[in-house]
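Notes, p. 3: input format for complexes.
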Amino acid sequence: MTELRTLKVALLGCGNVGAQVARILIDDADTLASRAGARLELSGIAVRDVDAPRDVDLPRALFTTDAEALVKDADLVIELMGGIEPARTLILTAMRNGACVVTGNKALVAKDGPTLHEEADRAGVQLSYEAAVAGAIPILRPIRDSLSGDRITRVLGIVNGTTNFILDQMDSTGAQFADALAQAQRLGYAEADPTADVEGHDAASKAAILASLSFHTRFSLDDVYCEGISSVTAADIAAAKDAGFVIKLLAIAEKLDAAEAGTGDTGISVRVHPTLLPREHPLAAVHGAFNAVFVEAENAGELMFYGQGAGGKPTASAVMGDLISAARSIVLGGPGRAETTTGQVVALPITSAVTSYYIGLDVADQPGVLAQIARLFAEHGVSIEIMRQTIHRDADSNTESAELRIVTHRASEAALAATVEAVKGLDVINSVTSVLRVEGV
Ligand code: NAP
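Output follows (441 residues plus NAP):
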């Protein structure tokens, strides 16, 4: 048997994910060598504190605080430190020195993907980041490779486990947002500072990456419209449930033709916001902290990818897949392109987004109200699919109020916003209780 060559692997970070990657590299060395066509030698692990306790028992001699020296002497670099700096500089240094890079750093790829890809192209090395979107779920490579002969039209993703856990708790127990968040924190699904998750920033990074690969155009975080879930109330969830919907935080990237977008250009709407989905939609069945990505393509039709979106071991699985692929590219003598950017489509503003809407209204219980509201919607070109009225009687005050729930057909965000403003001006409207976007109807 011919002797396999050895590739040096530098690991940056030994936290939740890094420790599991180190374990696999050491424990499964022989299997990995047969899959990669080269022995993968863990040459060192860069951390801040070499004496900190680790989840996995690892040789002390592997640890260093000199990350820069480590990356300069590696064939493959795995970046699992997180944050923008020094991760960005270390990745660029590694690629300039001819190393292939694997990272799970969605924040960095979404913020500075173009710079990283340009350096990878210039250096002729592979840059991959399957772990950056939806943890263990193989989604970037299917989009980039398996679907490269198709045209993707839309991607809908539940890509943040923390927010899915919170919304699922609210849906199943009737809890308010703050109580469901506290529960997520107690169980370790949410950080002490949950802002990046609950305000949608983490999902927005992933939306930018999904949109870039799906539509062969580089989109950055600035192209993503983002609304989180902190203002979703128990009443919103209950009303949605009553109408046959579930509320999910979705990362959406969809192609709109010029007529739909109203901009004169075909473009891509990239956005993150709480979204109503019919309970029978496949994404509605994604519970707890699980992730799933629903892809629509012209020829493949509808596809769904489901699994664990975070956690040390699941995320390490995605990192190892990228590492083996990068090692093979070195063994076979060519990096292969990590992405294509020939799409050249524009990112559309949120006002061009086209979707259905759910609108909750507190209205006066008097004759002619429904007709007035329906007329206003028609005047703004927003057609109503479902309109349902519920009368509430308050026994104490002996008064009656009416709650109106409307689901529209697809309409532009701009038309909907104008309609809602006009509706607010009607004397018969007490308040607009909710306006939420709807997908999958
Ligand atoms: P983590 O537990 O916080 O670990 C970070 C590691 O990086 C620690 O070992 C830390 O060293 C080291 N580090 C941080 N800054 C450093 C610096 N300036 N110099 C040297 N070492 C430094 O992070 P994680 O949860 O494993 O996540 C790693 C990456 O994977 C992040 O980009 C994250 O977004 C991504 N990711 C994570 C998950 C997940 O489930 N955790 C899922 C998908 C993607 P010390 O230990 O000495 O402090």
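The chain has a mean pLDDT of 94.
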